[in-house]
Design brief:
The chain has 387 residues and is α+β, with helices and mostly antiparallel strands. The protein contains 13 helices and 14 strands. 36% of the residues lie in helices and 26% in strands. The longest helix is centred in the N-terminal third of the chain and has 17 residues.
């Protein structure tokens, strides 16, 4: 074997898994826009015992080597629940990173294609994770914008290689930079307040607030947190490739992310039966903290995260999840969420907010920002190719 030949190896064991995870940090070390994967979180993500997605997903991880050097990585995934829901036979590629080398890219994608064919798949799509709760979409515009902990950052040469390999657009997402209204310039933001008031009175709605994490976990005998996530399940049901979260997944996400959530930034709208019908989950950005922590909790990364959450938050607010039950959409209910979050964001000193990825064709999602000062500053794509 030629010493410079690219070889592909399936990841086996915890040591190789750490190599797979940390290749992302190695490739983007020193890049001011890339936010490293959280090592401890990624170890759990690929743990078949801890990640509930393995109940309906298959996955293998691959590393590309040139000699003894790691030069790329990729995950091959089949989400059987999504394939059944959408009547597809797709193999997904996710967590893909590589140096700017055609031979490396060809070998990585080739490994996923072969893996998918062996399992009867007919199309390769990605980047996608196990579910919509994982990072998805390859960045195609906005390479000079700070990433987030829940999205993918990649170099500009990534999409160039996808085009070279014959991949085409499956779907596109956009992300917006939304300025938090100031007290001097609230004319348009005031429309949210008026619409919120009308919607609340017309449909007999009200806000639900929580003071402690223990309170929200204990609400309705522990079922309330599941009801909140089931709002997301129903709100996102028709979105591209979505597979509904099961109870174990909901417990997993609540355990992982709730401790980092400032409950002042959680907005829940209830109906007259005290049932959640809309939710906005936002939090101060952890991007800078993760960069300082080098994507690791230990030995000192926890301190940077602690400061970002409780003592010195970044000026950026991440809008992680916003969802309204289908029967309440187009009734001004999302205005209640904004009317709740905007004053809190102002008081806490946030300058601008980062939306989560939104499908370009999702008009309902795109129009909700109409009365705020915002701009699309990132675009990303899911690619496809027939096998």
């Amino acid at each position: 074997m030629h010493p410079n030949m690219v070889t592909i190896k399936r990841v086996e064991g915890r040591r190789e898994l750490r190599t797979f995870i940390r290749f992302n940090y190695k490739l983007y070390k020193g890049n001011p826009y890339a936010v490293p994967d959280f090592l401890e979180d990624m170890l759990d993500t690929f743990d078949r015992k801890k990640n509930a997605a393995f109940e309906f997903c298959e996955c293998d991880l691959f590393l590309a080597y040139r000699g003894k050097d790691v030069v790329g990585r990729v995950a091959a995934i089949i989400n059987h629940k999504a394939n059944k829901t959408w009547n597809t036979r797709n193999v997904r590629f996710g967590w893909i990173d590589f140096i700017d080398d055609a031979e490396v890219v060809d070998a990585l994608i080739g490994a996923v294609e072969q893996w998918g064919r062996e399992r009867g798949m007919k199309k390769i799509v990605g980047p996608l994770g196990f579910t919509d709760m994982d990072p998805e979409g390859m960045l195609t515009d906005g390479f000079d914008q700070l990433g987030t902990m829940s999205t993918i950052y990649n170099y500009p040469y990534y999409p160039e290689h996808m085009v070279r390999l014959g991949f085409e657009k499956e779907v596109d997402w956009v992300e917006r930079k939304v300025m938090v209204p100031t007290t001097e310039a609230q004319a348009d933001a005031g429309k949210y307040m008026r619409v919120a008031d009308m919607s609340a009175r017309r449909y007999n709605l009200h806000m639900r607030r929580f003071k402690t994490h223990k309170e929200i976990l204990a609400a309705d005998g522990g079922e309330y947190i599941h009801n909140i996530f089931n709002v997301i399940n129903r709100a996102y049901a028709d979105l591209y490739g979505y597979s509904q979260m099961n109870e174990r997944q909901i417990d997993q996400y609540a355990k992982t992310y709730l401790p980092f959530l400032d409950l002042r930034l959680l907005a829940v709208v209830e109906n007259d039966q005290n049932e959640p019908i809309a939710v906005g989950i936002t939090m101060g950005s952890l991007s800078y903290a993760l960069q300082k922590a080098h994507g690791k909790l230990f030995p000192f990364g926890w301190w940077h995260l602690l400061k970002a959450v409780y003592f010195k938050p970044a000026p950026v607010l991440d809008m992680l999840l916003i969802g309204v039950l289908p029967e309440y959409q187009n009734k001004g209910v999302n205005a209640l969420l904004f009317a709740e979050i905007i004053p809190v964001a102002q008081k806490m000193g946030f300058v601008w907010a980062e939306t989560h990825v939104q499908l370009e064709e999702n008009e309902k999602s795109q129009t909700q920002w109409a009365h705020l000062d915002c701009s699309i500053h990132k675009r990303r794509r899911c690619w496809r190719k027939n096998l």
